[in-house]
């Protein structure tokens, strides 16, 4: 039996997180607390699943500073408390009319609202939690001053309470470590606490809110991997629960679920109509596509009447003349082996592909793993696909089948990006019930990037701005991204995936490669047998000619034909 199993199999008293008396006191206070109006607070700070933490702990567990209650007592973080205490002392000097104890008293009154933000049970007394939040919120507020537009040089040296943290040679390192820590899902504090602190530092609440909004917008522009324009800047930054939620809704705009569901219903109706006509189209699909190929080449000739040639080519007699012999020839033993490839050359898809398309019309089920598959950037470029950047958000992802251009939003990658991406995916899977847009985006990029050559192509197309050491690091970043806890369908991303896969499948190079793999490389046993039979036939001919002097007969036959 493992140590974990022994722990859970031990007596109930050994597994109590707190003593009974403390538990009763907290329950009584919770029930008897006069809260006035009901709290309209949703849980927004969740625990990261253990499977994700074990995959890369440094991406989910803070490495320098603990902000919030989840990691406050971690031994490797507690030694940095002296820096946070120095920040709290400076915050107390900035408060107008109150001291830090009075601020803690206010937080104590709002203890249950603070607890409501956290998914995990907080094993702290009310006063302990209030002091913890006052110190951590003061530290976070002082750190956000680095991103205010009123400060020209956004560094620790320009913020007095931050200048004592590190020396001049380690400023950048500490800066990046704190940036990573403050965007982790388990390292969040409610923004309304920062708002209350800054209200006590300004003469008016309007001025305080404007300054805090200025800090938050500057922070978003600094850390966001996507371009944040003035139009896409958040209007109500103070209405979000914490920093990670603010970043999420800046990167992923809210999608109108009603419109999206309506679109799915319309798509289902259209797919139903397509199924009704499917039996008619299957019989004539190959013939129609064959004449489509013929017409595309004939129509380039000048002097031909469009309607006349069209009527002749797609007329029923011509269709019958082609379809009839083909149905007989395709049943021959040798031809039947290559029937699928010949039909796919003209039809553009096989029967198995049609079944997959039928299955993909089910919008009410999670996507299959196969539906996430997409060729790499290198393979798509070989098939004629071109990549272009957009200066908009993720909702601008689309593929233009007419021009073969795949539009993707520009993304900037640096040493802090991976931590942000991973925590955004985890937050989305914890909060959003459907339409995991950002998760689907990461799956798309993870699918098209396999090697550093793929990154190089996207970098040259300005889809990726690489601030890391090499393209190989960017490729590793995306390839190491785990899939989310659950899969989902996002209409506009799935449409782009479907269109680019169809475009890729129609490429002549891809068809030829598939033909070679399926019927040449995949049929090497059959080809070996045919080669052996041909060699045996030649041996028989050679033996026959050695006995019956075929050479003299061939010369006499050639002479007769010559006369």
UniProtKB/TrEMBL annotation:
Residue ranges crossing the lipid bilayer per the database entry: 526-548
Write the record's keywords in alphabetical order, separated by commas.
Answer: Membrane, Transmembrane, Transmembrane helix
Pfam families the UniProt entry points to: DUF247
InterPro entries in the record, alphabetically?
Answer: DUF247_pln
Cited PANTHER family: BNAA09G04570D PROTEIN (PTHR31170:SF25), BNAC04G53230D PROTEIN (PTHR31170)
Name-wise, this protein is UPF0481 protein At3g02645
Q: Which organism does this sequence originate in?
A: Dioscorea cayennensis subsp. rotundata
Q: Which gene encodes it?
A: LOC120254261
């Amino acid at each position: 039996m493992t140590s974990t199993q022994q722990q859970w199999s031990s007596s109930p008293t050994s597994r109590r997180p707190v003593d009974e008396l403390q538990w009763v006191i907290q329950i009584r206070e919770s029930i008897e607390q006069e809260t006035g109006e009901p709290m309209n607070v949703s849980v927004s700070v969740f625990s990261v699943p253990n499977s994700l933490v074990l995959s890369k702990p440094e991406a989910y567990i803070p490495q320098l500073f603990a902000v919030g209650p989840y990691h406050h007592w971690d031994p490797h973080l507690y030694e940095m408390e002296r820096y946070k205490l120095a920040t709290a002392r400076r915050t107390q000097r900035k408060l107008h009319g109150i001291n830090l104890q009075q601020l803690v008293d206010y937080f104590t009154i709002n203890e249950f609202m603070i607890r409501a933000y956290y998914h995990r049970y907080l094993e702290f007394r009310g006063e302990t939690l209030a002091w913890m939040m006052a110190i951590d919120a003061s530290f976070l507020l002082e750190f956000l001053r680095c991103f205010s537009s009123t400060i020209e040089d956004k560094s620790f040296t320009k913020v007095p309470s931050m200048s004592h943290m590190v020396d001049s040679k380690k400023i950048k390192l500490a800066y990046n470590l704190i940036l990573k820590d403050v965007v982790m899902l388990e390292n969040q504090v409610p923004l309304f606490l920062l708002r209350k602190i800054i209200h006590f530092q300004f003469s008016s609440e309007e001025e305080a809110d404007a300054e805090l909004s200025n800090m938050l917008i500057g922070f978003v522009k600094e850390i966001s991997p996507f371009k944040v324009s003035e139009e896409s800047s958040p209007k109500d930054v103070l209405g979000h629960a914490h920093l990670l939620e603010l970043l999420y809704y800046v990167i992923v705009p809210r999608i109108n679920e009603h419109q999206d569901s309506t679109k799915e219903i319309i798509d289902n109706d259209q797919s139903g109509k397509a199924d009704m006509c499917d039996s008619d189209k299957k019989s004539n699909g190959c013939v129609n596509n064959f004449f489509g190929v013929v017409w595309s080449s004939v129509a380039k000739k000048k002097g031909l009447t469009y309607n006349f040639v069209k009527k002749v080519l797609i007329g029923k007699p011509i269709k019958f003349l082609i379809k009839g012999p083909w149905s007989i020839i395709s049943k021959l033993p040798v031809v039947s082996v290559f029937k699928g490839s010949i039909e796919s050359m003209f039809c553009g898809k096989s029967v198995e592909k049609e079944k997959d398309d039928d299955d993909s019309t089910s919008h009410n089920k999670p996507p299959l793993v196969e539906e996430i598959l997409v060729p790499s950037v290198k393979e798509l470029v070989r098939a004629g696909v071109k990549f272009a950047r957009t200066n908009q958000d993720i909702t601008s992802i689309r593929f233009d089948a007419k021009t073969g251009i795949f539009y993707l939003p520009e993304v900037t990658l640096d040493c802090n990006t991976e931590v942000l991406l991973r925590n955004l995916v985890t937050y989305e899977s914890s909060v959003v019930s459907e339409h995991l847009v950002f998760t689907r985006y990461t799956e798309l990029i993870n699918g098209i990037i396999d090697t550093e050559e793929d990154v190089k192509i996207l970098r040259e197309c300005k889809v990726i701005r690489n601030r890391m050491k090499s393209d190989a690091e960017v490729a590793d970043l995306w390839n190491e991204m785990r899939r989310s806890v659950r899969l989902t369908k996002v209409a506009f991303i799935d449409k782009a995936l479907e269109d680019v896969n169809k475009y890729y499948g129609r490429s002549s190079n891809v068809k030829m490669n598939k033909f070679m793999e399926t019927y040449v490389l995949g049929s090497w046993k059959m080809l070996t047998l045919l080669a052996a039979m041909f060699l045996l036939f030649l041996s028989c001919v050679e033996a026959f000619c050695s006995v019956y002097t075929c050479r003299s007969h061939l010369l006499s036959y050639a002479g007769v034909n010559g006369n």
